[in-house]
Design brief:
homodimer, alpha/beta, Molybdenum Cofactor Biosythetic Enzyme, Chain A, Alpha-Beta Plaits, Maf protein, 3 domains, 6-stranded mixed sheet, 5-stranded mixed sheet, 17 strands, 41% helix, elongated
């Protein structure tokens, strides 16, 4: 049984403002991918007694503990002292490290005060973790069955020190195999129903994460002789049941999958967007190298631009209104023609909060796609606020594109 | 002195996948706004012993504890039992609540099993918190100086129960006044230097959060007769020193500020983007009602589109290259003319990871703005990955627009 991991982010400002802990998200992804299980993630204010008790209880549980923050030169930086208190050892100034720090500061002509000198303090028995980018070294402390790595909170320093020291020290956990299947245009409820008996596969743990227009199906199996085969069997079964709703796995995105399909055929795409106002084009160009298959886009918020830029007929606008299947179709055709692209996507809708009516409520969106191997016209009614309606729209359009672009000639 | 708050999100899937805790972010915002201080936020796996120890240590510190999750009908739902263990009391089945739950399930024709019955268990002495949307009731437990509210993890249920029960029970903390000043195009280091003595204002606590091209300066003062005046004095001083780098406060965004300046004068803006590929237009249309002042945009990834759509001269492209001040200027002028907008913004750059060279490394971006009250041409060298370069570019363009749009005729 592998030890479990406790992540601790230290800093009153982190806690007090309730912000996302991006260091923690980065570390969690690394640790899960390495095959370890995370047992708890904590964000703790700069409070000596609280910190010491948190360190102590995690070490007592035999956890691998990774902390970020609290290693700087100021009074607020209490990780070193808390760690010594938790381990029941004294804090000792390391003369060699002190000389090293003095040299570092002298080389940069930065004053070296008592605060800086505190960065040479370590709990007796702890080892240093070198910091390639900053002055604050990290600490590596073993205690009973537990082991604690204290890293600085500056992301670039933390990441470099994790990769150079912590990851090799941990080794590959091989504790858990983790596979993510990516699903588009299906609700969590229907997927749950279709996969209920698959979820019951012995040794398998399943989590669904839901995003606007997308689901992530996380499959995890504890390592063992059958683990690889279990994951493969489950994946095959999921793909058989959900068909082409499964668009990819692991790091794939809808845009990267659609782009690869286009690139393989030497085809290109262009966009004409109203309510999403550039978000679709931005998503299509998120993968590096997208200039191979993305030509450009038209953002036609004002109706007069739908005509002048995308070539939508005045009569179509007058008869059907700007949010209509007919206008979406002409936008797609216009994008294709005016942008010299093989595929054109037209999007028009009401993202809200204002602009909705009885027959076209907020969330009404039309998406049209035109291309050499097919076309598609869809009307949607998306729920959520302005941002969610726009996010749903982008993912529905990308899903439509990858379905058509992947279809046979 | 007000009690401090501990937030605990319960659920192995939350911890194991290292995802953002959106319940926790929602709660943190409410709690900070109510004037309370958060001391720690924890995410904990469904482990009885761990949960009980976490509850116990938070209650012992006299904290207000708010937990989410672990109140459902399955074996994994261990909040009730862990809470009883932490409080050192027994878990008691409540017959009245049991009858209530049975009735609820019967009305919906859902089978009622032993798992459901467990939702009628509560630690002796705890009070129920009614759940308006689901079957799992919450728990309200006082213990020594501490008080714990256990809420379900389903966001809609949790939020309704927080607002109906927890918020009134806590009352307004009035512990902390909180003001956010928003700053563009200044580095954290220079702002720190300029404000060093302001930070030392008695009773003031300052946190800077850094985003690409933007800073948030959080000012917090513990309530008291002078608190309002202290915040106002500090804000005046910060604005005096940083001048128009302070673009807004609290919920303002660069786009909302720029949009309001345009709307006040009845002016409009349009965009011609290369490397940001629609992100600038998407940011400009994030504020509801942006159709008043946003016309549309051109996304000109392919060079031939820079010519055909935005009217960039072939000679300019040939002589200066696509990433140049001259091309940015012609893009801005083209956006203005072709989109019928008062203001035009042109953006061209190298977002990476490929495409950089010795004289134009990755991160090189040119932004040009043309309008009735001025123009602006800037070259930037942004650091970071593809996403960060694009985010920096959008914020620099928005900052340029709000500076020019706000200038006198």
């Amino acid at each position: 049984m592998l030890p479990k991991v406790t992540l601790i982010a230290i800093g009153t400002e982190l806690v007090a403002l309730g912000r996302a802990d991006t260091n923690g998200e980065w570390l969690a992804a690394r640790i899960v991918r390495a095959g370890y299980e995370i047992e708890q993630t904590l964000r703790v204010a700069d409070d000596m007694i609280l910190l010491a008790s948190v360190f102590q209880s995690a070490l007592e549980r035999g956890n691998v503990v990774i902390s970020t923050g609290g290693l700087g030169p100021t009074e607020d930086d209490r990780t070193r002292a808390a760690l010594a208190a938790a381990a029941g050892v004294s804090l000792v100034r390391d003369d060699v490290r002190l000389a090293l720090l003095r040299g570092l500061f002298a080389a940069r002509s930065i004053p070296f005060g008592p605060g800086q000198a505190r960065q040479a303090d370590r709990p007796a028995g702890a080892e240093w973790i070198d910091n390639p980018f900053g002055s604050a070294p990290g600490l590596d402390l073993r205690r009973g069955g537990g082991r604690l790595f204290a890293l600085p909170g500056v992301p670039a320093e933390m990441k470099a020190m994790f990769d150079a020291h912590v990851a090799p020290a941990l080794g590959t956990g091989r504790g858990v195999l983790h596979r993510v299947l990516r699903i588009a245009s299906r609700g969590e409820g229907t997927v749950d129903d279709e996969l209920k008996d698959v979820y019951a596969t012995p040794g398998l743990s399943v989590t669904i994460l839901s995003h606007p227009g997308q689901l992530e199906l996380h499959l995890r199996v504890v390592a063992g002789p059958e683990a690889q085969r279990t994951i493969a069997t489950v994946e095959r079964e999921v793909r058989a049941r959900l068909g082409d709703a499964v668009y990819g796995a692991d790091a794939d995105t809808l845009a990267s999958v659609a782009g690869a399909l286009l690139a393989a055929r030497g085809e290109t795409v262009g966009t004409a967007e109203s309510c999403t106002a550039g978000l679709l084009a931005a998503a299509l160009t998120e993968p590096p190298g997208s200039s191979v298959w993305f030509r450009g886009g038209l953002i036609v918020y004002a109706d007069v631009l739908k005509r002048s830029l995308a070539g939508v007929a005045a009569e179509t606008l007058a008869r059907h209104g700007a949010v209509s299947e007919a206008v979406a179709g002409e936008l797609a055709a216009g994008a294709r023609e005016r942008l010299g692209a093989d595929w054109g996507i037209g999007v028009t809708g009401i993202a809200g909060p204002a602009g909705g009516g009885a027959d076209k409520p907020v969330g009404t969106v039309h998406i049209a796609i035109r291309g050499p191997r097919g076309e598609r016209n869809r009307r949607y009614l998306f729920h959520g606020d302005r941002g969610q309606v726009r996010a749903h729209t982008v993912n529905a359009a990308l899903d439509g594109l990858r379905r058509l672009a992947g279809s046979p000639a």
